[in-house]
Amino acid sequence: MDVMALFIINRFKYLTIQKVRAMMDFDLSETKAGEELIEIGREEGREEGREEGRDEGEIKGEIKTYQQLLDNSFLPKNMLNQFKEKIVELQNKLQQITSAYATV
């Protein structure tokens, strides 16, 4: 790798890959280091996806549990109302999570 390219990348850390390419006629992604950085990004993306899936799954599981509890008519009415409120709260939380993930 060209020492000048390394200097520019280190000195101007805020530069986008497009700007580095334009300045140096140099494509970092075509180097071994670039490939490794891309793989690091992919792995981080996979981990984020797993976390998002876990969060979403946990909330969906809680909603399902409360919905099943609502089917039990032997429970006191005030408890059933609390379960309904909890379901709405969890559905809102799920909506926020899925919206946040969609914008990332």
Rounded radius of gyration (Å)? 24 Å
Span between N and C termini? 33 Å
Shape: rod-shaped
- Total helical elements: 4
Number of strands: 0
Structural class: mainly alpha
Strand content: under 5%
* Average pLDDT: 83
Q: What is the share of helical residues? A: over 70%
Largest sheet: none
Series of secondary-structure elements, N-terminal to C-terminal: HHHH
Detail the poorly predicted runs. none
Written description of the protein model:
The protein has helices at 3-11, 17-24, 32-70, 77-103. It has 4 helices and no strands. The chain has a domain at 52-103. The protein starts with a helix and ends with a helix. The protein is 80% helix and 0% strand. With 104 residues, the chain is mainly alpha-helical.
List keywords for this structure.
mainly alpha; single chain; 4 helices; 104 residues
Element layout with pairings:
Elements: H1 3-11, H2 17-24, H3 32-70, H4 77-103
Helix pairs in contact: 3-4
In short:
This protein is mostly helical and 104 residues long.
